[in-house]
Each structure stands twice: as C-alpha cells, then as structure tokens.
Design goal:
- This protein has one domain.
- Helices cover about 60% and strands about 0% of the residues.
- The chain is built from seven helices and no strands.
- The longest helix is centred in the middle third of the chain and has 21 residues.
C-alpha cells in the first residue's frame, strides 16, 4: 500500500465500525453470503503476505495475547484498552505504509485493516455502538479471520480463540 493511501485508510477505518463485515462479529458466519465486504480466499488458497504485513499483524497479536484472560472476564482496565488501541493503530499504520501486496490481496487486507481500526476505536472508548470489551473481542475475531485467509507462516489461530 502506498503512503498516500494510509491517510484514506485511517479515515475509512475510523468510520468502518458500523459497517464492519459480518465475519468480524461472527467467525462461524457463512463467508459467501455477504458479497464484497466479505473476506474470501484466493481461488481456495490463502492470500500471500509480505514481511511488513506479517510483522505488523504479529505485533498486534503479541500485544493483545497477555491480556486475553482479562478481556474475556471483562476485567481489563480502560487505560490498558487505550494502550492496546494505540498499539493497534500504530501497527495498522505501519502495515498500510509498508505493505506491498498484489491488488487482489491488498483489497482483502483493506477489509482487515478497516475492522482493526474499528476495534481499536471501540477499545479506546470512541464507539457508541461497542464497549471496549466488544471492541477487543472484535479484534480477536479479526486476528482469527486474518489467519484463516492470509498465508502467515507460524500464525497459530488457537492462541487468539476465546470461549463463548
């Protein structure tokens, strides 16, 4: 993605909360039922990734993992949600500025980045629609979806799973 696109994506991500794809809220949802706003595979294969994308996503995952129990128990402090939101936004900006994917993969990544931004907004307390905890849960669903649709060697999906 070009640096020029980064400002647009940050604005789009901040506006995306109300239009978050269904997969962000329900990982068991039928992914084919929602058209253009739905992640899809590349002819049955996961989308190729590059080093900046893998680095940014791994950093987001590493930041949130130590807080999984507190998130699931709804015991995470607002200040910690705020810190995580800043880290998510910083890593998303890094991905947008440095990632160079093929156009089709890039279009799929835009869906992920938009939901990451919406989740970060909720975690920062900027959403009227989602609580901080719901934003964090949306983030976890998005990390799981990323692992299902993008080829990221070593991405262990169960590490972000949570009990319902």
């Amino acid at each position: 993605m070009s640096h020029r696109n980064s400002r647009w994506l940050i604005v789009a991500a901040s506006l995306a909360l109300s239009a978050a794809p269904a997969w962000a809220a329900d990982p068991a949802h039928d992914h084919d039922a929602h058209g253009a706003a739905t992640l899809k595979l590349d002819n049955g294969q996961k989308w190729k990734t590059d080093a900046p994308l893998r680095q940014g996503m791994a950093n987001i995952k590493a930041a949130v993992q130590p807080h999984l129990p507190a998130i699931h128990e709804n015991k995470l402090k607002a200040a910690t949600y705020q810190m995580l939101a800043k880290q998510i936004n910083a890593q998303s900006a890094f991905i947008v500025a440095n990632c160079k994917l093929a156009p089709d993969a890039d279009a799929q990544l835009h869906l992920v980045i938009a939901v990451l931004g919406a989740a970060a907004d909720a975690m920062a307390g900027k959403s009227k629609a989602l609580s901080r905890q719901k934003g964090a849960l949306q983030l976890l669903h998005t990390l799981d979806a990323y692992g299902q649709f993008f080829d990221h060697p070593g991405w262990a999906e169960p590490a972000t799973k949570h009990a319902h």
